[in-house]
Amino acid sequence: ILSIAIILCLLMALCLTVHATAPHLVDNGELLTDAEAAQLEEKLAAVSEKLGMDIVVATTNNTGYKSTMQYADDLYDYSGYGDDGALYLIDMDNREMWISTAGKAIDSLSDSDIDDMLDEMFSYVSSEDYFGSAMCFARLCEEYAGMDWGMTLLICFGAGLIIATVLRTRGST
Fold first, then answer.
1. What's the mean pLDDT when you consider all of the chain?
2. Helix axes 34-51 and 130-145, enclosed angle (nearest 10)
3. How many whole angstroms separate alpha carbon 74 and alpha carbon 65?
4. Pick from 103, 107, 164, 171: CA 20 to 30 A from residue 79's CA?
5. Cα–Cα dist 161/167, whole Å
6. Could you say which DSSP state residue 23 is in?
7. 81: alpha, beta or left, given left = phi > 0 and alpha = psi -120 to 50?
8. How far apart are CA 105 and CA 51, in angstroms?
9. Which DSSP helix (H) or strand (E) runs through 17?
């Protein structure tokens, strides 16, 4: 009996140390087909890896009396996602969409960016194309959060310097 108890304790310890990665798609609202869900999970995982943050899409039919914002924030905070990331929620209960951000995604996706993203994704949701809306979110996260601002500023500064030099030499002739 002691041997069995020790083996069971060891097996439980192994189970406790296994860390599963939280899924990038949480379709509790059952708005996607199995094929769409598989394709979206793959896209979200690729974008997450590229950006170095969790990019998540969630749907729900019941927020449990929470606001859409509170539900989305709690889902991201308490589902095992990393310190950096963004979660897009399609809330069928309150008929709303929301994007929550955490860590470096807060700086990468400004409020203005999020408003623009939601505006673009709304056209898909209004025509009940939830898959299209979620894929649009993944693409826009890649665009907005993946932008290398250091390189962009360097290019703008270099272009400005070249233009100023050309204008200066033209003005002195």
1. 84
2. 10
3. 13
4. 107
5. 10
6. P
7. beta
8. 10
9. helix 2-17
Residue with tokens 């599963």: 20
Beta bridge mates, 25:
57
- Summarised one tens digit per residue, pLDDT across range 86-105 is 999 999 999 999 999 999 99
Q: Tell which residue, 90, 89, 106, 97, has the closest CA to residue 145.
A: 106
The torsion region of residue 80 among left (phi > 0), alpha (psi -120 to 50) and beta comes to: left
Rounded to 10 deg, the angle between the 130-145 and 111-126 helix axes is 160
CA distance 56 to 8: 36
Q: Residue for token digits 């400005």?
A: 160
Q: Which residue type is seen at 159?
A: A
* DSSP string for 88-156: EEEETTTTEEEEEEETHHHHHS-HHHHHHHHHHHHHHHHTT-HHHHHHHHHHHHHHHHT--HHHHHHHH
pLDDT digits (tens, 9 = 90+) for 3-13: 776 776 666 65
> What 3-state DSSP class applies to 50?
helix
Strand-pair partners of 96: 91
